[in-house]
Amino acid sequence: MTDKMASRSTAWLVGALVALALFGNYYVYDSIGPVADLLQQQRAFSDSQIGLLNAIYSLPNIVLILVGGVLVDRFGAARMTLWTAAICLAGAALTAFSPNFAGMATGRLLFGIGAETFGIATLAAIAQYFAGGTVAFAMGLALAIGRLGSFGADMSPTWFASAYAQGWQPPLVIAATLAATSFVASLAYWWVDRDAQREVPAVEAAPAAERFVLRDLLYFGKAYWYLLALCVLWYSVILAFRSTFSIKYFQHTHGLDLATAGEMNSYVFLAAVFATPAFGWLCDRLGRYAPFLALGALLLPLALAVMALTDWSLWVSTALIGISFSLVPAVMWPLTSRLVAPARFGTAIGLMWVAQNAGVSGANLMAGWLNDQAGAGAANPAGYGPMMAFFGTASALGLLCALALWLTAGRRRHEVTAAA
What is the 3-state secondary structure (H, E, C) of the chain? Predict the structure, then answer.
């Protein structure tokens, strides 16, 4: 076997290990939603507390995401993947085995500290081992397998029904076990990378991460700021609703049992596994990003309105959310690279991730507070009305930002700025 072939086989081995690590990490992130109702019944948690369990994940990343890329560049993708996977495992274990809310919240905080930098490190790993026309495919494939972890978390009430029958803790122990699997995969990747650096000199270090430079904000045009606002509003709604409150909302307002509600929620991610790469390919072929982004942004408030105001089947609104969840990410990040000069791309992405984490955290807290104030629950399903109105308003504002972006930079001649 030639060195070139060895390098290719090593690259795909790294890709497989990274994908497995992402699977476990995504599962842990989405493990709170399926046990939300059990936490209320068995531990008397309020919706504000449940919202905080996911909001606190995002809080440290409002700051840490700015330095995550620098740390990956400084210590290498393999070491940072291993170190942050260990932090995530500790956080997942603390969440599962803590006897009180404070301990669980601390565990989720610890998991959040590791998880976002873990995500950066795994993407850097793919970029390091794949080049040219294969990097986008490899990255998309790894992320798609990671999203299967989110699908698995939603399906867990069906797949692990006996665990859920025992209460809130066994499902979280399963999540911690998958965090351990993620750590083992990260350890294996670190080991493979260490050997590859010795035996295959062609494996090069990932390019240096760009620093977040505050003065670069002065050079961003209107289109970028509209895109950032859409990023915050859209992700805040879809992550706070889908990952925290949707399953209990389906249970209490539509009379679904836990397993059925989890299955209904899971199809959003299952659709995205296949549809996101397809939408990305379509946008690349047609060269029109802003119209597709506006369409994806439109589907989210439409889905929420159908869900909250009609008696239509949940399949309708779930399908609309699934298309939106597939289309918007497929367009948003490539479009960012076309709206911002390459020298400032790191600053642009860093700011968007900071704002996104702040928005998701705030939306979780607000939705939980609204539910508590309205007394939302199985005995009062109408109490979820204020939460749905909040999500609907935020998603409608996101649509306005997408339309403004389309008018500002949606013309074909404005969509190819990367070459400028």
Answer: CCHHHHHHHHHHHHHHHHHHHHHHHHHHHCCHHHHHHHHHHHHCCCHHHHHHHHHHHHCCHHHHHHHHHHHHHHHCHHHHHHHHHHHHHHHHHHHHHCCCHHHHHHHHHHHHHHHHHHHHHHHHHHHHHCCHHHHHHHHHHHHHHHHHHHHHHHHHHHHCHHHHHCCCHHHHHHHHHHHHHHHHHHHHHHHHHHHHHHHCCCCCCCCCCCCCCHHHHHHCCHHHHHHHHHHHHHHHHHHHHHHHHHHHHHHHHHCCCHHHHHHHHHHHHHHHHHHHHHHHHHHHHHCCCHHHHHHHHHHHHHHHHHHHHCCCCHHHHHHHHHHHHHHHHHHHHHHHHHHCCHHHHHHHHHHHHHHHHHHHHHHHHHHHHHHHHHCCECCEHHHHHHHHHHHHHHHHHHHHHHHHHHHHHCCHHHCCCCCC
Which of 1-15, 49-63, 157-171, 356-370 comes out lowest in average pLDDT? Answer: 1-15
Which domain does 103 fall in, by range? Answer: 1-209
Q: What is the CATH number for 275? A: 1.20.1250.20
pLDDT tens digits for range 117-129: 898 788 778 877 8
- Residue 106 — very low, low, confident or very high, per pLDDT cuts 50/70/90? very high
The verdict on 10 and 120 lying in the same domain is: yes
Write out pLDDT tens, residues 8-27.
788 889 989 999 999 999 99
Q: Are residues 205 and 220 in the same domain?
A: no
Weakest-pLDDT range from 125-129, 160-164, 318-322: 125-129
